[in-house]
Design a protein that fits this description.
With about 260 residues, the protein is an alpha/beta fold. The chain has a single domain, classed as Rossmann fold (3-Layer(aba) Sandwich), CATH 3.40.50.150. Helix content is about 40%, strand content about 20%. Strands 1, 2, 3, 4, 5, 6, 7 and 8 form an eight-stranded mixed beta sheet that branches. The longest helix is centred in the last third of the chain and has 18 residues. The protein is globular and about 55 Å long.
């Protein structure tokens, strides 16, 4: 699973890095550091390797197993990271979630992934990690909240339709979308994990104009597929939002979570 191109991933990486909850990021690093040298970390849905870079400089001394179903993104990650001998790139269908992915791992990471998966996927993942005493650090999962500095009458309708679209199957069964945080927290507690959570919203201003445009276009396309909004209103919302991207700001809610055994 990835389904994202490098243009989108490159646009969002600076915003992601600025948004990550700093305390959870540090706690995730410390959970690995205490294990000593030659520790292995598995990154699910790795894209171009943004999680490795986000946890730098400590992450450069770890052994990474990067997992994605897109061979081009895996090749791009290997080229960009430039960590020969410390990065293993593995093409795999994450929906199958094979136990072998987690061999010898101390920590599993995932960014912008768990709002796309089902409760059944999370149950399977937590079972595999729990029986191996592996921690989990996940960041930048969408929470369903979007707001703009300059309002449009269709804002709430578009967000509602977009959130409904986020609940559709993304390749892992019916997606949790904005409900993923409480579901993961509940399942993790039931599985015996210590749960630490924090917020990681995007704060996008004019300096993120192109990221705003890409996000707005994606929202509008998804909302249109639901048929919940009158087409003329949605068209006007998209036009106004694209025109205002360089002059207005928006906030997009995300959450991070660290699960420890």
């Amino acid at each position: 699973m990835s389904g994202f191109d490098t243009v989108w991933l490159d646009l969002r990486e600076p915003a992601d890095n600025a948004a990550r909850d700093p305390d959870l990021r540090q706690a995730a690093i410390e959970s690995v550091v205490v294990a000593g040298d030659d520790v292995r970390v598995v990154d699910l849905g790795c894209g171009t390797g943004s999680t490795v870079r986000a946890l730098a400089p400590q992450s450069s001394s770890w052994h990474w197993r990067l997992v994605d179903n897109d061979p081009q993104l895996l090749e791009e990650a290997a080229n960009r990271l430039g960590m020969p001998g410390r990065v293993e790139c593995l093409q795999a269908d994450l929906s199958l979630l094979a136990a072998e992915l987690f061999t010898d791992a101390r920590l599993v990471t995932a960014s912008a992934l768990f709002d796309l998966v089902s409760a059944e996927f999370l149950e399977r993942l937590l079972h595999l990690l729990g029986e191996r005493e592996i921690g989990l650090y996940t960041a930048l999962n969408y929470d369903g909240v979007c707001s703009w500095e300059i309002a449009h009458e269709a804002d709430a309708l578009v967000v509602e339709a977009f959130n409904a679209h986020q609940r559709r199957d993304k390749g892992f069964g019916p997606a949790l979308g904005p409900t993923a945080e409480p579901v993961l927290s509940r399942l993790a507690e039931q599985a015996g994990f210590k749960v630490l959570a924090g917020q990681s919203p995007w704060h996008l201003g004019g300096d993120h104009a192109e990221l705003q445009r890409q996000f707005i276009a994606g929202m509008a396309n998804a909302a249109a597929e639901t048929d919940q909004i009158e087409k003329a209103m949605l068209h006007d919302w998209r036009r106004m939002r694209l025109e205002m991207a360089s002059r207005s700001s928006c906030e997009v809610g995300h959450w991070d979570m660290l699960l420890l055994r």
